Amino acid sequence: MADRQQTDPAPRWWSRPEGTADGRADGVPAPRPGSGGEDADGDGDGGGSGTGGPAVADRASAAVQQAPASQPLQEPLVQEPSAHDVRYDPWGAGPLQVVDRGRDRRGFRLWQVAALAALAALLAGGIGGYVGVLAERRSSTRLELPQAAVADRGRAPDSVAGIAAAALPGVVTLHVRGAKSSGTGTGFVLDPQGHILTNHHVVADAKEIAVTFSTGESVTAELVGRDSGYDLAVVKVSGVRGLRPLALGNSENVQVGDPVVAIGAPFDLSNTVTAGIISATGRPVTAGGDKGDGSDISYVDALQTDAPINPGNSGGPLLDARAHVVGINSAIRGADKDDPDRQGGSIGLGFAIPINQGKRVAEELIATGRATHPVIGVTLDMDYTGDGARVGDKGEDGKPSVTAGGPGARAGIKPGDVITKVDGQRVRGGDELIIKIRAHRPGDPLTLTVLRDGRERTLGVVLGSANGS
Questions:
Q1: Annotated active-site residue in 49, 228, 314, 401
Q2: Alpha helices in 299-427 (DSSP H)
Q3: Catalytic: 201?
Q4: What is the dihedral of CA 74, 80, 85, 86, to 10 degrees?
Q5: 41 is catalytic
Q6: pLDDT tens digits for 215-259?
């Protein structure tokens, strides 16, 4: 068969209908050949395109209403065919396509629903928590942990609490301002007239003295008298009602191991109470000496205690189990300054002036403003390193070391004698001899053991008196 272009006319039933219907709506397929549809020109003869078949007048997809003769022809009403009425039209401009538009997306998406649910839960939780807190606060029932009931606040008089309760109203804190410095100390009331006993080194060089009571009341005080050798001073307040003087005990009754309570203002912490025992009695202690001439050295035959005492406790009372004052807290022993492990403050070595000595000095200071010192009328060799206190060969400014007509001269003491005992108690140096003597009053008799030319002898002496500084 030769390749040639087909030129024969196609059969008529394969021909595309001539023209298109002007009034056909979009999407309505053309009538199939021979179906009897209307001509595209609408001449109304009902004839097909050469098929001679009858016209289908009631077909829903091409129904046309005939307008009255008096009115112009209206555009035919076209009903869109359903999916079941659509047929394939081989003469159509394109293949038949039915678009599936899916369901109408008018609802919420899944993430939107989850976000709304989370927000609702958050709001509900916050509102619920707030309402719960309000309900708990307004509820008559509340959380309460178990606790012991309030008991009787009374304490035994000889307990630490009982002693503190009895003594605190009579203890005061002193704030002192001097020309170059200021400091804090402690004192206690001696009598209803407002006399207060404290340490000399607390009020030394004082220009202003303020006294604060345990109630918080603060008043100005004036200096009555002081003595550096005993490290004691008396100040006085005026116009204060309801003073509570402390009862004075007897230091001769104190024994090692007795319980004691110390009250003071360490580091300006007023009304601080500590407790301990009497660790020793008759402990020779010297303090001061900052001036370098010996005029400010105090000599104390002290009570030793392990009750914590710190700077600021000075001048405070040391009390026995009956809340009686048996000592005046005055000094502490700290670790050596060159010790790398040196501990500041109390290390359990506190020293107090016996109240018997404090009472006598306070009485003299109140009466005359000065205190007297008991003396034996000799000058000691303070450079002597042997055992005992040696009487010097010469006194000050070349004067005799034994005062003529003095207590020592009358007792038979000579230059070069070494005093080894006072009333049978051993003396190891010049400081100890001074301390032992000052523990007594002027006029008291003493027995001295003296070593002379290698032999011991006993001498009796009556103490003389000298004005203190």
A1: 314
A2: 355-368, 407-411
A3: yes
A4: 100
A5: no
A6: 999 999 999 999 999 999 999 999 999 999 999 999 999 999 999
